[in-house]
Amino acid sequence: MKKLFAAALLAATTLSFGLSAEAKTLEEILKDKGIITEEDYKEAVKKNDLAYYRPGRGITLESRDGNYTAHIGGRLQVRYTYTDVDAPNEENDSDFNIQRMRIDMRGNVYNKNLYYQWQHDFGGSGGATLKDAVLGYKFMDELSLQAGQFKAPTSRQQLTSSGSQMFVDRSLADETFNLGRDRGILAKGAFADNLVEYMAGVFNGNGENRSNREDKHLWAARVDVNPLGKFDMDESSFNEPKPLLNLGASYAVQTLVRADRDNVNSRLLTRAVRMTDLSLAAGEEADLRTATLNSHFKWLGLSAAAEYYWANIDPDGKADWDADGYYLQAGYQIVPETLELALRYSAIDSTDAAALTKFDQNEFQIAAGYYYKKHRAKIQADYTLHKDDLAQNKDDNIFRLQAQVIF
What we know:
The protein is mainly beta. The chain is built from 6 helices and 18 strands. The relative contact order is 0.11.
């Protein structure tokens, strides 16, 4: 298999760069004619740019001095989902889907501190969608400033890439309460060798790929503490030789107005706007506040995490609306870096008598993951029992199978 892969890679490289491989460089011509010495040739070659491929990071182009880099790669997730729908007169669902097909490029230009990132998603039914577009500058480890479109600094699970999840996808609580991507500006940094990390920014507050139609903004901040050493944004534990612990919190606030109607794309804000749209008169506003608390532990193949979500909407002169949710999950790699089993429980609730938007749901999940090259090439499956306590006897059974490759 390795020989076949090597042959295929050699063929692809030959086809891609065949013409340039046949042509001699100026340095080679000068050396062959004896105009420059062998030492002069080696020194000139050192100034040439480099191009190479690394699995999981894609194609890298970089200058010798490191002032120009471009990492071009992508991620593909193909998924099968079967849903046993517990509702009268509704058919069960059996669906094959391209969950995510993303191409990204990141690097730096002009110097090592001026960085950029771009990511586009070609999966799903909505066609090509811009996910990330970032331009930033790193002044020091303690301070970087960036602008563009990216995730607001809220829950830990949302900030962890969908490609680095322990289950096929994120929890019910995160799906409900996350604020997702937005357009804005962000400051971030780390102190004392990543003991403390922070992010704080201001955003349009309307979700990804949307402009702001009024003068209100989303303000969000997050702090992480890693008392036992740097903690990567990765849910699984790949046999860490020492215990690692992450403790984090986030807080966000935004003022909603009637102009926000139909101009959001996160589930929480959609529900919030639906509620305020029913209860706000023209010119009235509602304050939205969200917060999260999380802890995450890893050691020797064991990974455990818990996160709590809270939201409050306080309309002018009206009763406020509260909602909260959480998840608890744990996994263990019974075959180190290869086979992982995991359990998760998640719940969301907003059943206040005054609430116009109500939900009371929970889900129990079991999962198994086979890691061929860690997250770079893996197959995951999970089973979910989803209960909706506001719908009589609404207990759906969901099976998902997903393969992922990061290239």
